[in-house]
Amino acid sequence: MTPDARNAMKRRTFLIGVTGLSTLVLTACVSPAPRPSASATATPTPEPKPTVSPVPKPAQMRRTSWSADPFARGSYSFAAVDSTPEQRTALAQPVLDRVFFAGEATSPDAPGTVQGGRDTGLRAAREVISAAAPGERIAVIGAGIAGLSAARFLKDAGFEVVLVEARDRIGGRIDTVSDKNWPFPIELGPSFVSHSGTTSLDEEFTRLGIATAPFPSASETRTDAGTVVAVPDTGQKAVATALAWATQQASDMSVQSALDGSGASKLSTADAGGGVSEADWLAFRVATVLDIDAGASVDHQSGWYTSADAGADDERIVLGGYAGLLTKAAEGIDLLDSSVVTKLAYRDTGVSLRLGTGESLSADRVIVTVPLGVLKSGVLEFDPALPFAHRGAIADLGMGTLDKVWLQFDEPFWSTAAPLWTTVGGDEDFRVWINMMPLTGEPVLVGLVAGDTALRLAGADDATVLAAALRGLTPFYVPPTPTPTPTPTV
């Protein structure tokens, strides 16, 4: 493949990014890896990290740990080193016209997104209809957006459909929580619709009466000291230089290796203004864009297929509950929930599913929509083993992790009305925040962590995560104005 061809195949494959917060928080595990070297990403002597933040404790907190979720094992797929876009198509290929695959990881056009998951579910359903006789029994494994879309399409086409779901709810990585303690539905999974002008999701939300709102791509960025600073193109240019250099190399490499090999990471650690160095701005780009986009560190991301594009400006945030998208699709579907499929045996005459309870389920054909992270774990056994191309795709494609912490405060401690906050410099875990107050009128903040940081915090208790989140919010803290002491009268 020529460098030009590789360049042409590169695309943006992220879910929730800072330059374009996108559609989905999905599932799987990546192995921890070292952060970029200090010379590439940070000043050698950062300010000491405060042990206690002045930010008040929230009234409510909810957090996610998608890497620890056995039915997700991460958040969304990404272009890992030595993987190729063609492997997504390979993973989507039917086996014996009995086993079909869907899910965001099989989307060549929109991996890592709700739209991509939905489109692949519809594609797999059409493939089944082309291969099946009228009235056949079709099993669909996974009641996420891909599985529900496929099941709905097949049910409406006259097939007998059984939807098998490991969880006790539908939605998969779409997880809307409506709780009396929260003033509006909160999204533990996807929150955004990316490229809303070109997807069918935005129209569907409108039809269903589910509220959405435009979300700006620009952020308010502050230093650890709380100083608002303009974001230069230093980090963006360094990354673009490294990725352009990588496409000219004979073999794929990590983005970090491309940054080092191209010399793009050799930036000054001297103050370039506001107490922030050029190296800090590269670290900012890595932490708030690349890590978030992939859900993995730059040590794992492909230098050939990671995109340097800035992202879309037409994204919308879902305020009325992402799960509303699923309710209509599930109507009338035979759902077998709380049922883990441990083995899938297939022959040219049909398929058989073995459940974790020891029970079996037979069908003429099956659509597998479980997340890539679950496929990677091997907990679902295929008999016989899947073809080599499928196994290679499962092994090579990456699964990233992005987690959220939702914090509800009694009153705002901040003064900015910007809906998106980022921080530069220092080494705090939470560098990206969504301010829900200008969108909902409620003092609610959402912090994002990805990659190695998310994996590390997944093993921490709530108190540790909360402390890390409050430290990350310190640059936005505004001390309360003291009440004047009355002057005594004589």
UniProtKB/TrEMBL annotation:
<feature type="domain" description="Amine oxidase">
    <location>
        <begin position="55"/>
        <end position="129"/>
    </location>
</feature>
<feature type="compositionally biased region" description="Pro residues">
    <location>
        <begin position="45"/>
        <end position="57"/>
    </location>
</feature>
<protein>
    <submittedName>
        <fullName>FAD-dependent oxidoreductase</fullName>
    </submittedName>
</protein>
<dbReference type="Pfam" id="PF01593">
    <property type="entry name" value="Amino_oxidase"/>
</dbReference>
<dbReference type="InterPro" id="IPR036188">
    <property type="entry name" value="FAD/NAD-bd_sf"/>
</dbReference>
<feature type="signal peptide">
    <location>
        <begin position="1"/>
        <end position="27"/>
    </location>
</feature>
<feature type="region of interest" description="Disordered">
    <location>
        <begin position="33"/>
        <end position="59"/>
    </location>
</feature>
<feature type="domain" description="Amine oxidase">
    <location>
        <begin position="145"/>
        <end position="476"/>
    </location>
</feature>
<dbReference type="InterPro" id="IPR006311">
    <property type="entry name" value="TAT_signal"/>
</dbReference>
<dbReference type="InterPro" id="IPR002937">
    <property type="entry name" value="Amino_oxidase"/>
</dbReference>
<keyword id="KW-0732">Signal</keyword>
<dbReference type="InterPro" id="IPR050281">
    <property type="entry name" value="Flavin_monoamine_oxidase"/>
</dbReference>
